[in-house]
Design goal:
This protein is of the alpha+beta class. It contains three helices and eight strands; from the N terminus they run βααβββββαββ. It has helices at residues 7-26, 39-57, 126-129, and strands at 2-4, 74-75, 81-87, 94-97, 107-114, 117-125, 135-138, 141-146. The strands form two sheets. It has a five-stranded mixed β-sheet with strand order 1-6-5-3-2. A three-stranded antiparallel β-sheet has the order 4-8-7, with no helix packed on it. The radius of gyration is 15 Å and the shape is globular. The mean pLDDT is 87.
């Protein structure tokens, strides 16, 4: 499903990204990977993807925009806990950091695109993604990997009370 963030949603995403970027640097959380995209741009796209997913699920996004470990990115009205992963690659994959816990969320949703245009591409159960056989080396760290072709369609997402 295609989602376009409004001007105010874009401003909110930029505010969230700025706060996360500053706090991550203050805590010397240098992101354990080597990315081709600048870290600040990654924060912008991540926040934008979270807002796009919240818009899809018709819930207010979590504005706990500082650094956190554990938990999920949003909760649907039917209490499904959602971890959102965003990539600029149209056929990108879900990558869940090795330190995440299965108990933190019920599903992982992949959002693709760049500000302000995103696609809520699909989802997988967290327990599907975070299996030992899905743990793969990613440049300088390990992550659970779920390929784009293995995503469940959003039309089959667990009960999300989207009315």
């Amino acid at each position: 499903m295609e989602i376009q963030l409004s001007e105010i949603e874009q401003m909110l995403a930029l505010t969230m990204a700025n706060r996360r970027f500053v706090e991550n640097r203050q805590r010397t959380n240098r992101d354990n990977d080597v990315q081709t995209m600048h870290h600040y741009q990654m924060e912008i796209e991540g926040a934008g993807g979270e807002l796009a997913a919240a818009k899809f699920f018709k819930v207010f996004p979590s504005l706990d925009n500082g650094c956190r470990k554990g938990g999920c990115d949003l909760v649907t009205r039917s209490k499904v806990r959602v971890e959102v992963k965003t990539t600029v690659h149209k056929r990108g994959k879900i990558l869940v950091n090795n330190w995440k816990e299965v108990e933190d969320s019920d599903i992982v949703v992949l959002v693709t695109g760049t500000m302000p245009n995103y696609t809520v591409a699909g989802w997988a159960y967290t327990h599907e993604v975070m299996r030992e056989e899905n743990r793969k080396p990613q440049k300088q760290y390990l992550a659970y990997e779920w390929l784009h072709d293995d995503l469940h369609p959003m039309s089959e997402a667990p009960v999300v009370d989207n009315d």
